[in-house]
Fold:
Amino acid sequence: MTEKIDVRALQTRLARFAAARDWERFHTPKNLVAALSVEASELVEIFQWLTPEQSARVMDDPESAHRVEDEIADVLAYLLQLCETLGVDPLAALSAKIDRNETRFPVPGAHANDRHSPES
Amino acid sequence: MTEKIDVRALQTRLARFAAARDWERFHTPKNLVAALSVEASELVEIFQWLTPEQSARVMDDPESAHRVEDEIADVLAYLLQLCETLGVDPLAALSAKIDRNETRFPVPGAHANDRHSPES
Amino acid sequence: MTEKIDVRALQTRLARFAAARDWERFHTPKNLVAALSVEASELVEIFQWLTPEQSARVMDDPESAHRVEDEIADVLAYLLQLCETLGVDPLAALSAKIDRNETRFPVPGAHANDRHSPES
Amino acid sequence: MTEKIDVRALQTRLARFAAARDWERFHTPKNLVAALSVEASELVEIFQWLTPEQSARVMDDPESAHRVEDEIADVLAYLLQLCETLGVDPLAALSAKIDRNETRFPVPGAHANDRHSPES
Structure:
């Protein structure tokens, strides 16, 4: 359903949210990357004592599922604010990175000339 | 320009990339959050010795700009793979979080009854 | 053997090392905690794709053993420099924390009145 | 005063603490490094919105001073437990690292032959 939430719209909401509270002065790139890493660690904290198998079932419990979604939201919030501040398009940056990685990590066993059409 | 890169399309590319290299077995939620936090720290590393003012100019230097974009891409890549694995919609999660934060952190000076229409 | 390396002596060496290179101006508490967290993530990076069982054998390979020791040294270096800057005694802080945790997390099955003398 | 708290004694207390609560099964190297990085991030969280100047005065406020000491203790606790599990001597590892760094980062302006006796 999600009806047209997009990255731009979220960045606009985040910028208005910060501006209304006069929080922009805290949002240097240096502070935003620190906050991003702190939120990423709060995600790690949820999983730190779990076995790999337990970690795969983390969404089965409604309380931990909510906690995971909440921390994912926080990571994304700081990532988008950082990108806004720096003038980086995160989706374009990732797309370009996947392009580079396809060259850097060739598919094992794929021949250079059939990589993009394995069926040929 | 960026012509229609969206989150879903990136998640599909990332899933195919991992599947082609047989990397899916490494991508437990526990491992993905660890990798996400490591990439977030690689962003922090770029800024760790900078003053707030220097951090605001980090994109002026092409080499550090590229490094920043590269690490942003890595953070986003692991975040999207985590969301795919867990069945979380990251944009919906962030939208819901902003809704909650608007209640949790009321705008200072805004009266309860005009909070959503400051111009009235 | 380790012949008398102690925390104070290491702090003195680290302080002289930084002073000789004029690096003290970078060592605000804010920067030192960022650097500490970056080094902790470099430790995580070594383990991020390992199974729990593989992680238990990490010291069997001389190269990864060296890498682990190197990152442990970096974490400790920034922790000790932070403590020096803030005037915190890290060993006393940990000793006090263990005291608090013994109250906070009582041993399961231990009766309140025999906790400190299980043999009585 | 601190009367003879040393690293070995703290490691012994931590090992007994974990054993008494049957927590050893959680303490794989992989989990301990994750926990270490989470605690390091809790330190970062205290400083994330502070200016460099504010960060230098963090111990002036008793409440934030206590919080800083508490997180330093947690970082050290996981670092020492990790070292115990892996058989690494953290003080020897740091001492060896400082030796290597003295070669890697020569003092600017110091001549090779007077580096260790600038007064000569």
Remarks:
- Chain B is about 65% helix and 0% strand.
- Chain B has two domains: 7-88, 89-120.
